[in-house]
Specification:
The complex is a heterodimer of chains A (159) and B (247).
Chain A (H helix, E strand, L loop, with lengths): L3 E4 L9 H11 L10 E5 L4 E5 L8 H5 L5 E3 L6 E3 L9 H5 L6 E3 L4 E3 L10 H4 L5 E4 L6 H18 L1
Antiparallel strand pairs in A: 1-8, 2-3, 4-5, 6-7
Chain B lengths: L1 E4 L2 E4 L6 H7 L23 E6 L2 E6 L10 E3 L3 H17 L4 H9 L20 H9 L5 E3 L6 E3 L14 H5 L7 E4 L2 E4 L2 E7 L6 E4 H10 L11 H17 L1
Parallel strand pairs in B: 1-5
Antiparallel strand pairs in B: 1-2, 3-4, 3-5, 6-7, 8-9, 9-10, 10-11
Helix pairs in contact in B: 2-3
The chains are: A alpha+beta (159), B alpha+beta (247).
C-alpha cells in the first residue's frame, strides 16, 4: 500500500506553515497562492483543516485530461502533472471534486500536490504533526474507522 | 538503440523523433511550433540539426525526423546557426508585434535589414493553437487562405458554434498572438462572447459555461461540483470535515 498525506484536523493549529513551505519548495517564494496545500480555519469550533490532493485511485483530473499529461508516478504513487505535456486547458481544475488542482496564471501552470517526489516537505515543518505521510493501513483501526465514517458521510453529502 | 547527440551517447526508442529523444536526455534544441502533447509539425524549422549517417551529412528538422541506429547528430554548427538566425529574422519581420519574437531576434543577434516589418502582426503560423483545439475535441479554428494571406481563424471569421471559450489556444501560443479578454463575467475570444459561470458561493467567475458543458458531456461521471469554483470546492470539503471532527 502506498503512503499518502494523512491530515488530522483536530491537531492542526492553523499556523499555515505547510502553505509557506509548499510554495517555497515549489516556487522558491513564500506565497500561499502558490501553495498546493490550503488550511481553512474555523475559529468558532476551534478547528483548522488542511486540504490537499488525495491522489485518488480513480482520479477525475487524470481521467479528464485530453492529452494524458497527468500520470501516476511509479515511485511515490502521486499523480504528477507533466508541465511540458500540459495544454493548460484547465479541465482538471473544473473536474477535481476537492478543488485540489488549481491554475496559477502568473506561472502559467497547474498547481497540484506532487508529494515532493515521495518526500513531502510540509510534514517536516508541521509543528503539531497534523499532517503525516504514512501508509493509511498502518494507522490504528479505530482511528481509521472513525475517519472513514466521517469521510464517507462528507463524500456522500458532496456527491 | 543508441544515438550520438553532440558527442554524447543517448538512448532512443524506435519510432520516436530525434527531438523527443534529445529533450529526454536534457539536450536543448530550440523550437517554436513544438509541444510535447502534439505531434512534431516541422513548421517553424527552428529545430534543424545536422545528422551524420555513415558519413553522409544532411540537415533535418529534428521534430519530425525518426531516430535511426548509429546516427551522429550535431545540434549547433555554423550552418545550423545561420539557418536558425534566418528563420528568427523572417518570423520577426512577419510577426514584429510579438514580444517573444522581438526578444528572440535580439537573443540570436539577427542583423537588421530592409525587409518590411509588420508591427500589427503577432502570429507566426506555428499551428499549435489549431492542433491543441483539435486535441480538446473542438476544432473551432484552422489555418485559412494561402501564401501571404494565411492566418488562423474560425470558419468565415464568425463566432464558431463549437468553440467553448476555454482559452487553451491563447495559453499554448508561443508568440502570445491570441487575444482573450475577460471583463465582468464575459470572456471574449475569437469574435465570440462567453458568459462565465459564477461560483454559487463566492461569485467569482471560474470557467465559461460552454467549457463546463463540454466537459460534462464528455465525462459526466467526473464532473460533480460544476457550480463551485476550485476554492469553494476545497472550502466546502474542509467545512464538512471540520463539522464531523468537532462533533
Amino acid at each position: 500500500m502506498e503512503k499518502n498525506l494523512i491530515v488530522q484536523p483536530e491537531t492542526c493549529t492553523g499556523c499555515r506553515t505547510c502553505e509557506m513551505i509548499c510554495s517555497f519548495v515549489h516556487a522558491q517564494e513564500f506565497n500561499p497562492l502558490r501553495s498546493r496545500i490550503t488550511v481553512f480555519s474555523y475559529e468558532k469550533v476551534g478547528l483548522s483543516a488542511p486540504m490537499v490532493c488525495q491522489q485518488c485511485s480513480v482520479a477525475a483530473c487524470m481521467q479528464v485530461c485530453p492529452v494524458g499529461a497527468i500520470q501516476r508516478d511509479e515511485h511515490s504513487a502521486a499523480l504528477l502533472v507533466s508541465q511540458d505535456k500540459c495544454l493548460r486547458c484547465k479541465m482538471c481544475t473544473i473536474a477535481c471534486p476537492f478543488g485540489a488542482a488549481t491554475y496559477d496564471p502568473g506561472k502559467d501552470m497547474i498547481l497540484k500536490c506532487d508529494l515532493c517526489g515521495g518526500d513531502p516537505q510540509c510534514i517536516k515543518y508541521c509543528p503539531s504533526g497534523a499532517i503525516s505521510y504514512q501508509d493509511p493501513l498502518q494507522a490504528t483501526l479505530a482511528k481509521r474507522k472513525s475517519y472513514a465514517e466521517k469521510f464517507k458521510t462528507a463524500f456522500e453529502e458532496v456527491i | 538503440m543508441k544515438i550520438i547527440v553532440d558527442g554524447k551517447e543517448i538512448d532512443a526508442v524506435l519510432g520516436e523523433t530525434l527531438l523527443g529523444a534529445a529533450r529526454r536526455a536534457g539536450i536543448h534544441i530550440p523550437t517554436l511550433c513544438y509541444h510535447e502533447s502534439l505531434e512534431g509539425q516541422g513548421r517553424c524549422r527552428l529545430c534543424m540539426v545536422e545528422v551524420n549517417e555513415g558519413g553522409r551529412k544532411e540537415v533535418v528538422a529534428s521534430c519530425t525526423y525518426p531516430v535511426k541506429e548509429g546516427i551522429e547528430v550535431t545540434t549547433s554548427t555554423p550552418v545550423i546557426d545561420k539557418i536558425r538566425r534566418n528563420i528568427i529574422m523572417l518570423l520577426y519581420k512577419r510577426a514584429t508585434g510579438s514580444p517573444v519574437m522581438r526578444q528572440l531576434f535580439q537573443e540570436y543577434g539577427c542583423p537588421q535589414n530592409s525587409l518590411q516589418e509588420n508591427p500589427e502582426e503577432r502570429c507566426i503560423l506555428c499551428n499549435i493553437c489549431v492542433r491543441a483545439c483539435e486535441e480538446l475535441g473542438s476544432s473551432a479554428i484552422s489555418l485559412i487562405m494561402r501564401g501571404t494571406q494565411k492566418r488562423v481563424a474560425t470558419p468565415y471569421d464568425e463566432a464558431a458554434a463549437v468553440c467553448i471559450g476555454c482559452g487553451t489556444c491563447a495559453r499554448v501560443c508561443p508568440a502570445g498572438a491570441i487575444e482573450m479578454t475577460e471583463k465582468e463575467g464575459i470572456r471574449v475570444i475569437w469574435n465570440k462572447a462567453f458568459a462565465m459561470q459564477a461560483c454559487s458561493r463566492c461569485g467569482s467567475y471560474y470557467a465559461s459555461r460552454e467549457e463546463i458543458a463540454h466537459l460534462t458531456a464528455r465525462k459526466p461521471e467526473y464532473v460533480i461540483q460544476s457550480d463551485l469554483c476550485e476554492d469553494c470546492r476545497k472550502r466546502m470539503m474542509a467545512e464538512k470535515i471540520a463539522v464531523f471532527v468537532s462533533e
